[in-house]
Amino acid sequence: MGNRSVNAKRRDFVKASAGAAAGFVIVKPGSVYGTPANDAIAVGIIGSGGRGTGDGRDMINAGARIVALHDLFEDKLQAARERLDKAHVEKGLPKLEDKKLFRGPGAYRELLASGVDAVLITSPPYWHPDHFEAVVDANKHCYLEKPVSSDVWGAKRVEKAGKKGAGKISMAVGFQGRFAPAYEEMVRRIHAGAIGEIVCAQTCYYGNDLGRKAREGASPLENRIRNWVFDRVLSGDILVEQNIHVLDQVNWTLRAHPISAVATGGKKARLDVDTWDHYNVMLTYPGGVHVSFTSTQFKNANGGRTQRYFGTRGIAEASFSQFGVKITGEEPWDSGVTDGFSNETMPRRLGHFFDSIKSGKFLNEIPNGVDSTLTTILGRTAAYEKKEKTWDQVANSNERWKERIDLSQFNTPVV
Q: Got the DSSP string for 241-286?
């Protein structure tokens, strides 16, 4: 065994983990609503930017067809259409129709009435509650990108809508890390007692700066929306919008949400945008388990997304960059992979979602999505207010951004 290559170990590991996600299957085109390729699951996208296009291509590869697009901006619709049509052609699927492109703040309701089976929501998080409520009311299956909202008030709306849709539609939340084979196996071993009682954990998310997307001559509001990842109201700040991936995995691993947080952070390296560029958060979980979390989002980051769990019998470590996934101590284990976020992750994630639609065993990932969103808002609130905050104080506050965003200037003119 010791002489086998890392690649061979990786192949064996992925093969052994292939069925780890409950009901996992990659849905082939035509396997859900009929036999022709045109009968693949019909998906509409609300928010057709980079994330929507990327997720859309992954959905096509997993057996779906993108049949409708929505966005505020014509250039985004056309760019998404071009990229997704290319993916359709590669799979022998029809291209998008002109009449299935919907532009304007309220046009997503037209998308919901256009014959879609499921909806991918990749709009800015500020509007996730509006869009998710509409999808549930339309009785469409939903893949909601994280976070579920940018404030507590919105998270509660999503929670309420999720209860309404439970058992009637499949509702997934975009936490791909839960379907990374190596990480899933590590968490299974932790839950089985491989590292003993967890004492504490060290976690981080070090991200690079993101590209600016302002357009010359556009209104301040248009450029604000195009640059929504840099806007605290629209995105929730980097802790909520980006760092949620790691904190969701912490909640999953510890099988709980935190009970309190103290935090610091601010802007020091990146002064031209609204969001902060670093956070330092200490979260306390049930049983007195303390979890430190640090994050950055500016130039020269090493891309680290690492978690280390220290237990009474060993240490578990998972990295989505370069350090691998392994356990040391009394029950050592090594996944044999360098990057915990493997190529199998997104197909498994989407296969689980589409299989739930096919089987009628509908998913409801909204409770976990709300918990993880509130976890990040707990840390953000502690940092903004510079004092310790408890889960009950934040989660029960119904806190809402005071600012309201008026999108009327983006209404499509009536011809």
A: HTTHHHHHHHHHHHTS--SEEEEEEE-SS--SSSS-SEEEEEEEET
Q: DSSP string spanning 202-214?
A: EEEEEE-------
Q: What is the mean pLDDT of residues 152-171?
A: 98
Contact call for residues 40 and 30 (beta carbons, < 8 A):
yes
**Cis ω for the linkage preceding 367 (within 30 of 0):** no
| pLDDT of 39 | 67
342, amino acid identity? S
**b/e per residue 228-259 (b: at least 16 CB within 10 A):** bbbbbbbbbbbbbbbbbbbbbbbbbbbeebbb
SS3 41: strand
Q: How far is CA 41 from the centre of its chain?
A: 21
The pLDDT of 56-74, averaged and rounded, is 97
pLDDT score, position 413: 62
Are the CB atoms for 309 and 316 separated by under 8 Å? yes
Q: Tell me the CA distances in angstroms from 182 to 9, 43, 245, 310, 316, one per residue in order.
A: 12, 29, 16, 18, 12
Residue ranges and CATH numbers for the domains of the chain are 19-176 (3.40.50.720), 184-340+365-395 (3.30.360.10)
Question: What is the longest distance spanned by two Cα atoms in the chain?
Answer: 72
Let me know: does 8 contact 82? Beta carbons within 8 Å. Answer: no
396 class by beta-carbon count within 10 Å (0-12 exposed, 13-18 middle, 19+ buried): exposed
SS percent in the chain: helix, strand, coil, step 5: 40, 20, 40
**Which structure tokens are listed for 40?**
């693949």
- Cα torsion through 53, 58, 61, 67, rounded to 10: -40
State the pTM of this model. Answer: 0.90
Tens-digit pLDDT profile for residues 220-243 = 999 999 999 999 999 999 999 999
